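Weekly puzzle thread! Below is a chain. First person to post its structure in token form gets bragging rights.
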Amino acid sequence: FVIFNARSLVCGASGSGKSFALRPLMAHAHMHGDLVFLDAKGEEATVWRKVARVARGGEAICAMIDELYAEMQRRADLMDERDLSVWDGAQLTVVGDENQAILAAIAGGDDSKARLQRYREVSSQGRSRGVVLLMATQKPTMSGSAPGIDSQMAGNVEQRIALRVANSTDAQTALDACAD
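Winning reply:
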């Protein structure tokens, strides 16, 4: 049972099928709204570049995060003008494939703290504005030198899908209270 407008996390070790598992979610998003694909690895972008806005690589991903934040703010302004509390237009689904590399790209770029905050706000404020974030990661950790999930964004995840993960610690992080 998958909810298509829920902030989601797909976890799995390398080769477990994360990108393949994302495809039906992305196809649904494409058929029912707009789709943006942040592809930190680059390979899956070839499948989606003709049907979605694709950002591939660090600089392009950072620029796209800035664009997504601006779009989210534009929608908030339109909602205010129309006295709406929830966006009533097309959903914009943002898929981040290999969130660990996306977070690393943000950390390595100019304006990294402000950009990370914008990415966090897309996660926390986007859904009511019709901007939904789906993240995929090989390593569902929230700490260390290369986290796969930002600890502030993890609390916004409403739906978790776990494929084969490396160990029980990763399963606990990926599934939270549902890990048992």
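Puzzle host: Confirmed. Bonus trivia for everyone else. The longest strand covers residues 33-39.
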